[in-house]
Write a structure and sequence with these properties.
Layout lengths: L29 E5 L6 E4 L2 E4 L4 E4 H8 L4 E4 L10 E4 L3 E3 L4 E5 L4 E3 L2 E4 L4 E5 L9 E3 L4 E4 L5 E4 L2 E2 L1 E3 L2 H10 L4 E4 L3 E2 L18 E3 L4 E3 L2 E6 L3 E3 L2 E4 L4 E3 L2 E11 L6 E4 L2 E4 L2 E3 L2 E9 L3 E4 L2 E4 L2 E3 L2 E8 L2 E4 L2 E4 L2 E3 L2 E8 L3 E4 L2 E4 L2 E3 L2 E2 L2 E4 L9 E3 L2 E4 L2 E7 L3 E3 L5 E2 L2 E4 L2 E8 H4 L13 E4 L1 H6 L10 E2 L10 E2 L6
Parallel strand pairs: 1-4, 1-6, 3-5, 5-8, 6-9, 7-10, 8-11, 9-12, 10-13, 11-14, 16-17, 17-19, 18-20, 19-24, 20-25, 21-25, 22-26, 23-27, 24-28, 25-29, 26-30, 27-31, 28-32, 29-33, 30-34, 31-35, 32-36, 33-37, 34-38, 35-39, 36-40, 37-41, 37-42, 38-43, 39-44, 40-45, 41-45, 42-46, 43-47, 44-48, ...
Antiparallel strand pairs: 2-3, 14-15, 51-52
Length: 484
């Protein structure tokens, strides 16, 4: 097992009702690119600026401007007018050589497809005089480039565009600290079967997915003491992987020496850097023998924010979690669905297996099961975590927790010897009235399914959490990271 070893983004108001995400707003005032008529915007000499704090720029008007030259859309207007965020709520495309620059006082929220079909480019700048802003991609939001020679700059820093897994691996092999971005959706089904992580180089740079998807990666490997991920082996301190979607990951790894440890994750084996806005959509992550297995990462020593997993994670032995097997860093505003399965010595958790780090504002609906089998130790499982020796706050779980012929289950965690505050489990869906394998503990409360669907649990911040009968089955969801 690994040695013992936040920037929460909140939002208080949705910019567009049709978008499945929110842009952070401490006060009214946003520049929205949509199909509505242009309103309160002034476009002169290639700069579109608001004349009032709330403004609309019609997408077709913007495309026409891009046909004539470079365009900057900013939240700062003349006469002291200051909007906060730029929200893209309508599809954009242009075939010219023009560069579109989005400059936001605080956040940029992309909720529709942007296609640079010519050799033009994009520039993204947030926190332009503001703070606590982010660049986010909502459901259906992405930036795609038809030409790898197109320009992409984020905060003035140029990124190199890649359009295959092979080019990404080659890029980081030549420059581990480089900055790369995925130019468009890529189907890796034609790559064949990998026998190890596609990107083996320890990454110290940045990979920006731009809301694009890599699908159908398949890995079948055998080794000893390995760190294996669906895309990366590991990323180091200071590195980051952002806004990437992996669909239909199929990863199976077998440890030759059943007493040695392996770190296996749907995206990467070991995270020592920063993951933000990353998603695993469907897939299977399976390992045999001892180790840590997670839907996103085997071991997290860094930070994971606004990310999610919908996959089946399973292992023949030891620690398995919906997002992370072993969390020694920070996880915020993230969730796991799908299932967690074991057939030997399982320590299973809906979100994480073993936690010595910090987890806040997260949830797990993943089911946990173990079929007993031939074992020398008693398995254990919890709806959210198996073992908690760190802190878990403002979180909940709903997944069923079932171990054949064994009562060692907890609705929220099997064991929790450390800090838990404002945590909840669903007694109806979990199948147990006990918060841990050893009874109930302070800080973890039982709620029936009806109670959990009726109101936000006590202590949940309504600027972070919301509830809607048509979203997430009526369960609380994260405003900045809604289910997709």
């Amino acid at each position: 097992m690994a040695s013992d070893r936040t920037q929460a983004w909140t939002c208080s108001a949705c910019i567009l009702a049709a978008m499945t995400f929110c842009a952070a707003t401490e006060a009214p005032g946003n520049v929205v690119i949509s199909t509505d008529a242009t309103q309160n915007m002034s476009c002169m000499r290639g700069v579109c600026a608001p004349r009032a704090a709330d403004a609309v720029l019609n997408a077709s008007d913007l495309e026409n401007l891009l046909g004539a030259g470079n365009v900057t859309v900013t939240t700062t207007g003349s006469g002291g007018v200051q909007a906060n965020d730029v929200a893209v709520g309508a599809a954009l495309s242009w075939p010219s050589t023009a560069v579109l620059s989005l400059v936001a006082h605080r956040s940029i929220a992309i909720g529709a497809a942007i296609s640079v079909t010519g050799v033009g480019g994009m520039s993204l700048t947030n926190n332009d005089g503001g703070r606590h802003g982010t660049i986010t991609f909502g459901s259906g939001g992405s930036i795609a480039f038809a030409n790898l020679s197109s320009q992409l700059a984020i905060h003035g820093i140029p990124f190199t565009l890649v359009n295959t897994v092979t080019k990404l691996a080659s890029g980081f092999a030549q420059n581990p600290s480089g900055k790369f971005a995925l130019a468009a959706n890529y189907d890796a089904g034609g790559d064949g079967t990998y026998d190890d992580s596609p990107v083996l180089t320890p990454v110290s740079g940045t990979f920006e997915g731009l809301g694009n998807t890599i699908s159908n990666i398949k890995i079948v490997g055998v080794g000893t003491d390995k760190t294996v991920g669906g895309l990366f082996a590991d990323i180091q301190t200071g590195a980051s992987v952002k806004d990437l979607i992996l669909a239909n990951v199929n990863l199976t790894y077998t440890e030759r020496n059943r007493f040695h440890g392996i770190f296996v994750g749907g995206l990467l084996g070991l995270n020592e850097g920063h993951l933000f806005g990353d998603r695993i959509l469907q897939g299977v992550v399976h390992a045999t023998s001892a180790g840590e297995v997670g839907g996103l990462a085997g071991v997290n020593d860094g930070t994971i924010a606004s990310s999610s997993v919908n996959a089946t994670t399973s292992i023949g032995n030891t620690y398995v979690g919906g997002i992370v097997g072993d969390n020694e860093g920070s996880i915020i505003t993230s969730y796991a669905t799908g299932s967690v399965q074991g057939d030997r010595h399982l320590c299973g958790g809906g979100l994480v297996s073993f936690n010595t780090g910090t987890i806040t504002n997260s949830y797990a609906t993943a089911s946990i099961s173990d079929s007993q089998g031939d074992r020398q130790a008693v398995p254990s499982a919890g709806g959210f975590a198996c073992k908690n020796e760190g802190s878990i706050d403002d979180s909940y779980s709903t997944g069923s927790v079932v171990i054949e012929n064994d009562p060692s289950v907890g609705g929220f965690a099997c064991s929790s010897g450390s800090s838990v505050t404002n945590d909840y489990w669903d007694t109806t869906t979990s199948g147990t009235s006990s918060g841990t394998c050893y009874g109930n503990v302070n800080g973890v409360a039982a709620l029936t399914d009806q109670q959990l669907r009726s109101n936000l649990p006590g202590g949940f911040d309504p600027t972070i959490w919301a509830q809607n009968p048509n979203i997430n089955g009526g369960y609380p969801y994260l405003i900045a990271n809604p289910p997709q």
